[in-house]
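Hi both,

Apologies for the delay on this - the queue was longer than expected. I finally got the NAP-bound model through. Below you'll find the protein sequence and the ligand SMILES exactly as submitted, and right after that the structure tokens for the full complex including the ligand.
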Amino acid sequence: MMVASTVRYQAFGVRTCTRTLRYNRRTAAAAAATQTGETKKVALVTGGSGGIGASTVRNLVEKNYTVVIAARSKTKATSAADQVRESVPDADVRIADLDLASFASVRACADNILDEYERLDVVCNNAGIMALPSRELSVDGCEMQMQVNHLGHFVLMEKLYPLLKATADASGEPARIVNVSSVAHNFASTSFPVTDVNLAEPGAYGALGWTAYGNSKLANILFTKELHRRLRKAGVSNVLVNAVHPGVVDSELPRNLSINFYPLLRILGQLITNDEGARGQTRLCLGSAPFETVSGAYIAEMASQGKKGEHELFDSSAQSNDLGLQRAFWDESCRLTGSKWNVLEASTQTEQQLSEMNV
Ligand SMILES: NC(=O)c1ccc[n+]([C@@H]2O[C@H](COP(=O)([O-])OP(=O)(O)OC[C@H]3O[C@@H](n4cnc5c(N)ncnc54)[C@H](OP(=O)(O)O)[C@@H]3O)[C@@H](O)[C@H]2O)c1
């Protein structure tokens, strides 16, 4: 109860004036939430309505987390929640509307979370789409894979960060952000187009949508590493952020492929199950050994090393480790989304100190 009250106080303190207008409604929701056991840890999983995300939701519920499935289809989310309740009868699993293809929807989702939840310990940015055969734009005018896979999550995290930080401060345990990337980040353009993230230049989208998917998955790692660096620069060590490649998983992800090679991979025994794929991100969400304190890292499923279904620390591409690219892409993500991330402006570490910390 003490932790929840402190989090409510601290989180409220860092919110903008618009939050104040919703204070009464929020206080009522918080009181109701407290009565239903709000002191349990809370995790939010985007795309928790299916595939690897649904397995992640179940894993966290089994560890006694209250889990919010943030999804664009209420029908699918309700069905996923019902399935979790079948295997974990006292599961506290809830639903939030989120369409990452619309920044307005993302901001509304975050506002609802801030209104309704007293604490937030974990966010797993898992939702994704892969290889749309031709270039599509979101309502915000952004290339669709980049928006759903990265930019939408970038906005979501800016909005939810204050509650994550307040929760970590009050509970004395780190809050955790997990960005689900892919080995496909290696498919990104060799000259990652920071000035053409939306791939508007003629021929930039490429054949079958793989370059755009690779760019968006590289974006997940660039974001992870730059956010880690900015957190440290702001003197924040209790919010941890990592990226993961779940493995090549037998999910619904190939639904948009013009040439669907997943059935062949299935026949060849090259696919892992959703449950196996979810292991890595679950361990990052929980901070399980050896990932208790790791941040700014990339872990990957190790089938290529003969360890199918296991996830270990792995070197992501040279591009993803390019400091200049990380910074430039952060700025471009701000420009495209209108996010400012002012919440991280306070800088307590000098460049010299950061360099000594190997950040
Ligand atoms: N499967 C693989 O082989 C593989 C390999 C490497 C990385 N990954 C990554 O793993 C993550 C999970 O993918 P998955 O394999 O579990 O695929 P999946 O079965 O297709 O699940 C994707 C989830 O994202 C949701 N989603 C899609 N567009 C959305 C939007 N605009 N707003 C909100 N939610 C949206 C989907 O909801 P709907 O069902 O309503 O569309 C679904 O819940 C993705 O980030 C993917 O890039 C997967």
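Main takeaway for now: Confidence is low (pLDDT under 50) at residues 12-37.

I'll put the files on the shared drive as well.

H.
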